[in-house]
């Protein structure tokens, strides 16, 4: 479907709220809490698709809203939406996609968010409040000034919300291990996490360590992310006899495919494990959400993970 940008505003210096309406004035359909849109637009002359969580009322109606954090090390999608997108612009959009839905059999919900990962939690919180469900939110941000949607989070039921700041005088990190340990034996408690891949990874691994069933751990990730410390990677494919230099901003999987290598792939978000391959040299930087620590000693997900610029990362492809 096609949506028109009807409003934009800055929530923080790095986060922009974008309101989208139908082009014919008709109400937009309701969506499941935790849903996202896949938006299509051109960066330069290249068609691009990016996924953004819906932060507006799940009942739908006159508009949808998304909140986009500008990433200086991303693939250009957030930069385009911050610097180029204007009111009146038209965007191609999917219907709302639900891959982070509320588990109906849970009796308590432990929500864990980092940075812009708070976005899918907003509609979930709205629904949990409406139904009177038991929940708690643990939200980590660099500083209080970077906390978005404070009116929603710190209004009703604010005693259920705990804020953590990692770059301020009141430094405090979420104790993931203790949080999982506290609720591990509560069989009807479910965990929801969204944020940096490192946060998702910590929750996932802690859950396994405390015997929490995988079906009780839900996470949302939208694909690869780069760090300011990332540099270009020299990639070697031993079975294909291919070497390629990969710049920051291009995934290793995309580079492999562009070089003519065939690699199985599905989600491209580091979740399904379809692209897992074996590495024999190099220093991988794991950013997947599917491998165990033991598997990471030899296995690698090229769809989201990266590597040190020192030496060559050699994959058996």
Automatic annotation (TrEMBL):
Gene3D superfamilies attached to this UniProt entry: 3.10.20.30, Nucleotide-binding domain of ferredoxin-NADP reductase (FNR) module, Translation factors
Iron listed as a keyword: yes
One Gene Ontology term of the molecular function aspect: 2 iron, 2 sulfur cluster binding
Keyword Flavoprotein carried by entry: yes
Keywords carried by this UniProt record: 2Fe-2S, Flavoprotein, Iron, Iron-sulfur, Metal-binding, Methyltransferase, Oxidoreductase, Transferase
Domain FAD-binding FR-type: 1-103
CDD domains given in the database record: fer2, PDR_like
2Fe-2S ferredoxin-type domain residues: 231-317
GO process terms (BP): methylation
Name used for this protein in its record: Vanillate O-demethylase ferredoxin subunit
Organism: Pseudoxanthomonas wuyuanensis
Taxonomic placement: Bacteria, Pseudomonadati, Pseudomonadota, Gammaproteobacteria, Lysobacterales
